[in-house]
Automatic annotation (TrEMBL):
GO terms for molecular function: mannan endo-1,4-beta-mannosidase activity. It is an enzyme of class 3 (hydrolase). Pfam families: GH5_mannosidase. This is mannan endo-1,4-beta-mannosidase. Keywords: Glycosidase, Hydrolase, Signal. InterPro entries: GH, Glyco_hydro_5, MAN-like.
């Protein structure tokens, strides 16, 4: 068995865990922080977070595949990779991981998603994947890492809203938008090693608008909401099989997140602002009562932990404030995606292109900090990323080879993380940390091998090109993340 031994019934007295003996693989973990006592909950204090030791700054990383990687091999897990990567992140000062605490399956195999699913059918759970999630929390806690636990997903890569709608409508066909098809041409001669291509709208994919219209029916279908609430209760009341902690009473779980990037349900008549990202005010939007209802529900079950929405903030000030201005939502979130939003081109090596991305990110952080202050809440930059210098891959066999350099990504990370740190340190800011997308650790596209479930577990989720936004263990971005943590630790100690 790979289950580490761990005393049950942890108390505040057991703050310093027996780290070395509890880690079954490799040598003792590097530069670990303190373990997290079950009752050392993080709370919001003005525009800052705090725990028993004082102010908490979140040096975060996205690690959405955690529960699947940490599971046993017969369900596609890779426990030694999980432990190695957790140690790597801890050695870079990471104290927060945003992970999935949900994924949904279907009666017939569906493309583009995490497999096996945690919830294979309404109310039916894959216990081996659940044990993977237990292991994530237990091992994170030992390394002083807290979690954002994402409870659903707007997008198809974990099943998500679309799967709940399909379940509730006689397993109707989900209209998938353009997504990465790992088994499409081109393939390499060795089966399961790549590369794949995107499906094409109008050929083998639907439009994003059609997909979100389908997925957003989730907000208002009573049966879908009933199942979603049952999932929330199931997760919050889970007793961790590794350390005996109940999830809702474990301070390792800092935050329950309603969903990854829930989208407005009102179809906008126009897009506003210089980047055409902002949407007009729509007080009738179903997302707003849904946030209120779900966040109130979670707070009633888990009053010691925090709740957030998982919103990107791209829709502008009105929507940002409308979804966050509830007493049951503890802090705001933002996601900043310069390439996806048309501000940056990963194939363009010009400095103007990079400067446009940096200016956008700086303004986005400043603007969202102000929006948060106006509603009296802190804000967490919990997703952002940039591709490698992929113009260097042009003409090669794959556009996302890890051999491309990262000079643009490094400059961009320094700027956007710097903007968050400056805001945090300014005395009048609202940012509480940063969380890049996404840790790929040991993964590389060049050596990828789909497992028995068709998964490669890149930092990019299954509906996107593997290697696009990955942070690899040897990337300079990880040193930028680490310097952030050291800088803030120095700031907080003075
Ligand atoms: C686990 O991950 C490591 C590192 O990526 C890889 O070398 C190994 O083949 C993986 N094992 C399995 C069983 O997939
Ligand atoms: C549900 O779907 C099945 C298979 O597609 C179909 O035969 C059946 O008529 C559908 N039922 C309803 C109520 O739509
Ligand atoms: C992916 O590509 C393969 C090979 O072309 C094809 O058989 C399959 O239908 C595609 N999957 C989807 C979901 O489009
Ligand atoms: C990937 O798909 C795009 C869009 O259909 C197509 O233009 C391109 O040639 C494909 N790439 C390969 C290598 O087949
Ligand atoms: C989107 O849905 C509409 C209405 O069902 C349909 O006419 C259209 O073809 C769909 N778009 C795509 C790209 O499939
Ligand atoms: C949330 O909505 C459901 C109906 O979908 C209702 O039964 C429940 O009371 C609401 N909960 C809260 C906390 O508003
Ligand atoms: C936020 O809610 C408070 C009261 O709950 C209200 O006074 C304030 O106007 C709201 N702000 C926004 C921007 O909606
Ligand atoms: C690269 O980006 C710059 C600045 O946005 C633009 O002026 C130039 O035309 C772009 N070059 C190409 C080849 O797209
Ligand atoms: C920031 O806000 C200003 C003023 O509303 C606006 O002009 C600008 O486009 C915004 N920038 C970003 C990146 O959101
Ligand atoms: C916040 O502080 C910075 C300097 O630390 C200052 O430049 C900025 O104007 C202040 N903003 C507000 C809204 O007070």
């Amino acid at each position: 068995m790979l289950l580490p031994t761990w005393p049950l019934a942890l108390t505040a007295a057991a703050v310093v865990p027996p780290l070395v003996s509890a880690i079954p693989h490799g040598s003792s973990p590097p530069t670990l922080g303190r373990g997290i006592a079950a009752d050392d909950f993080v709370s919001v204090d003005g525009y800052k977070l705090k725990d028993r030791q004082g102010t908490v700054y979140l040096t975060g990383l996205n690690y959405w595949s955690c529960m699947n990687l940490a599971a046993e091999g017969h369900v596609g897990g890779n426990y030694s990779r999980f432990i190695t990567e957790l140690d790597q992140m801890a050695a870079h000062g990471v104290n927060h991981l945003r992970i999935m605490a949900s994924s949904e399956g279907a009666p017939t195999w569906q493309p583009f998603r995490m497999y096996p699913a945690l919830q294979e059918a309404p109310g039916a759970y894959n216990e081996a994947v659940f044990v993977g999630l237990d292991r994530c929390l237990a091992e994170m806690g030992k390394r002083g890492m807290r979690a954002t636990m994402t409870l659903a997903n707007e997008w198809q890569w974990s099943g998500g809203f679309g799967q709940y709608v399909s379940w509730a409508t006689n397993n109707s066909q989900i209209p998938y938008p353009s997504s990465w098809n790992l088994t499409a041409a081109p393939q390499r001669s060795e089966p399961g090693t790549g590369w794949g291509n995107y499906t094409v709208e109008g050929v083998d994919a639907d439009s994003y608008g059609n997909f979100t219209a389908y997925a957003n029916r989730f907000y208002t279908i009573p049966k879908a909401q009933e199942w979603y609430h049952a999932h929330i209760e199931k997760i919050l009341n889970r007793v961790n099989t590794v350390n005996g902690r109940v999830y809702k009473e474990d301070a390792t779980v800092m935050t329950w997140q309603l969903a990854n990037e829930p989208q407005p349900a009102v179809v906008p008549t126009e897009s506003l602002g210089p980047y055409s990202l902002e949407l007009p005010a729509a007080p009738e939007d179903a997302i707003i009562p849904w946030v209120k209802n779900t966040s109130t529900f979670i707070k009633s079950l888990a009053p010691s932990q925090l709740v957030n929405v998982g919103f990107e903030g791209k829709q502008g000030r009105w929507y940002y404030q409308a979804v966050h201005n509830f007493s049951s939502v503890d802090y705001g979130t933002t996601h900043c995606w310069v390439q996806n939003w048309g501000v940056y081109d990963m194939l363009n090596s010009s400095s103007t292109n990079l400067e446009a991305a940096k200016s956008f990110a700086t303004a986005f952080v400043a603007n969202s900090s102000e929006w948060s202050k106006e509603i009296g809440k802190p804000v967490f930059l919990e997703e952002f990323g940039m591709a490698r210098n992929n113009w260097e891959n042009e003409g090669k066999e794959y556009a996302y080879l890890s051999s491309a350099g990262t000079s643009n990504k490094d400059a961009y990370f320094t700027t956007i993380i710097g903007a968050v740190m400056d805001d945090f340190k300014s005395g009048n800011g609202t940012y509480i940390g940063s969380c890049p997308w996404a840790y790929g650790g040991l993964y590389r596209p060049e050596t990828q091998h789909a497992n028995a479930f068709g998964e490669v577990w890149a930092g990019d989720p299954p509906h996107e090109a593997p290697g696009w936004y990955d942070l690899y263990d040897t990337d300079e971005a990880m040193n930028i993340v680490h310097r952030q943590q050291q800088d803030i630790a120095g700031f907080l100690s003075t």
